[in-house]
Amino acid sequence: MSEDTKEYEVGYRKPPKEHRFEKGRSGNPKGRPKGAKGVNASLKRELGAKITVREGNREMRISKAEAIAKRLTAGALKGDTKLLTALLKIDADLFGGSDDGSEQASAALEGPDKVDYDILRDFFSSQPDDDDGPEDEEEAEDDGS
């Protein structure tokens, strides 16, 4: 026998089925108590707590978030590829992403800096000229046409 065909017993804390849930009324009308803190608040408070760390031969008090950042960058510098990947993702989120994208768009319109040209000039001037280089192929194509 299915539940739909059973007779529903109406009584104390058992309202009729058609009146169980009112439209537009929350199941938790009072909401979260004022003193209750969420997970994000607890995590933020924990990461802000100070700890003592030793760097070289000196001790200093820094937040746990700073200690994590130092550990992450030190591991990435040592060559740990997982930490390096995580650091690059965080770096892109922190410095590369702006809400409106106007900074990135303006940088793209400005073009390369003088430093970029200097780097490229130094790179290409230090490359040995081989006879198989792309410049020679272009010249050969121009001569053959």
How are the strands of the largest sheet arranged? 1-2
Task: Name the shape in a single word.
Answer: elongated
**What kind of assembly state do the chains in view correspond to?**
single chain
> Spans of 5+ residues with little confidence (pLDDT < 50)?
none
Helix fraction bin:
40-55%
Instruction: Give the CA-CA distance, first to last residue.
Output: 90 Å
Structural class of the helices, strands and pairings? mainly alpha
Give the number of DSSP strands: 2
Radius of gyration computed on alpha carbons: 33 Å
Number of helices: 6
- Kindly estimate the percentage of residues that lie in beta strands according to DSSP: 5-15%
Order of helices and strands: HEEHHHHH
pLDDT average, as an integer? 76
Q: Main beta sheet, described? A: 2 strands, antiparallel
